[in-house]
Amino acid sequence: MLNSRYNPINELFYVAIERVLGRSFEQGAKGQKLHPHSLIYVERNADEELWQFLVSDRFTSPIRYILAAPKMGKSSLLEKTIYKLSQAHTIHYIAIAIELKPYREPISEDFFYFRLLQIICEILARQKLAIANELNAVWESDRQNHPRQKCREFLQRILVAIGDRTLAIFIDDIQHLLHWNLQDSWTQFVRSLSDLETNLFKRLKFVLFGVASPYRLIPDLRTTGDRSHFIELTPFQDNQCQSLLSGLKKATANPNPILQEIMNWTRGQSFLTILLCYKLYRKSRKGDKREPKEQIKNLVIQERFFRDVPLVLHFKQVADFLIRGDPDELDRKHYTLNLYARILQGQSIQKDENSRSQTDLLVSGLVGQSEKYLQIANPIYQQIFTQQWVEQTQNQLKQRRSKMPSSKIYNRDVYMLIDQSGSMVKRDDVFNKKRRWEAIPEVIESHVYNILNHQGMNGEKICDEITITLFSPNRPATVSRIIQDDSQVADIFEENQPDSNTFITPTMAQVLDRWFGTRNNQGGFVIVYTDGSLDDPDQFVNLVETTCRKLNSQDELKVIIVGFGSDINRDPKFYLRLDANTSSFLDQNAKPCNIVVFDLLNKMSGIIDLLNRQLENPQAGLAEWGREFCPELY
Fold first, then answer.
1. Same domain, 243 and 207
2. pLDDT (tens digit per residue) in 194-225
């Protein structure tokens, strides 16, 4: 999720390596970040703006965002700046680079802020500042305070510990905050930093890099209109490219028109510009004597040029930014592609900062801005992202839309029943020898997050809160908690421990009575998490059958059973048969009422898919993996 990325470099080694010009070109042509000593690094206005922010104490905010399209040189700028800082101000600054990594499931605020501080402490430990032990103690003892508050207060401790030095924290790939839905939290955290004492506040700098819309990353930006926190990383300009020009001089006797023609094709897009320089550098060494315009045109119209692996990956990055993620916003994505098609056809589209679709096109890098109007970013993109590409992509979006959950999934009361039986203390190979009680909270957190944050095409939600109840003894539950955020799950497990037996019926009846009494025409989901067999299986089946007879239809309520752990993986037959046999139960209108859906945690595709499985098609049947256990049911 969060990884430290900057390590001390053996300068003499790299200086020696990068004296070979081809190495510098090759590095950039592969889409890799350039080394601080790279001979082809192009300095832009952003370099100086960032430098002034870091070394001056006149700024009123401790944070700067550098958001730009894919492969615009963000990571190279980060590395170059840290190196310069380490060389010029070693005794005055501590520079820490952190890279956010994709994570399979959304993460909690508590985990994010703790891990952020943990990495900072690990790097400070290399400078003989042993503050990591304090972090663990403070974080565990101060559970009442919000993670943002704890992070801010511990940063204050760090600033005191490092004396009069400035702490500069560089975070790359900040767009992952959006996937984890932490953008609001981060914005509030940044605001809270102003509460630090003035002398401490001025010794803290955050620089964030990423591919994201500023309006999504800072939700209140449209209201405040304050863009002073942003540093723009613009395309290369002709007068900035002396380093590339110097390199081309070693490959051709006529570098100026060569570079100018490259810029005509790339419009200064950094990766494309370096890639063409590299390819021409290699060709020129073989004695190509044609005119620059002919050389470049011949290069970029060849099919094999577009099969270049780094280029293919780059085109995919640009496209993915527009069409991946946010499956609940397919209509807007469709409109965004229509807008791009109009620009492609030459229509004059005036820049509108309030248009989210325009912002997405700009951040993707697919379009740029000329005065007040949008235009295709460069002729190379224009050859790839054609009208045919627009139509094919829109068809893909339509197919994705057809796979969206049934509208019946929304506007429901959601209950989670969690097994608290004694077997939950077992260490399980499925969870890498962790106790089941310690391993399952992370699963529950991710399911809670997905249920609370899933939205339909028109903004519909499944629910705003979830009731979590523990079951074990042969009596109604005594532990029941209404939660509105996934971060609340951990407290339930910490405050309770596994009990004795596995009686589910009394607690299930209690939950169902509550739902029938308060549902107000809302549907319901009861999600049961269990690690094995029940002590009251017959009573549970009877309860399910009597519940069916109270329903108007099978769509009103679904009982989702999620099995986890080695025991139930070895023998899931009871739950498979229950899932199959409930198709014979009847509702109050004497119609089939199949309300039970069962799957194994390590087999299911996702909680939303599981909730949706039998809503649109109640005859969808059992999970295919169950055939080996109960072939007679298939």
1. no
2. 877 777 888 899 999 999 888 888 877 777 77
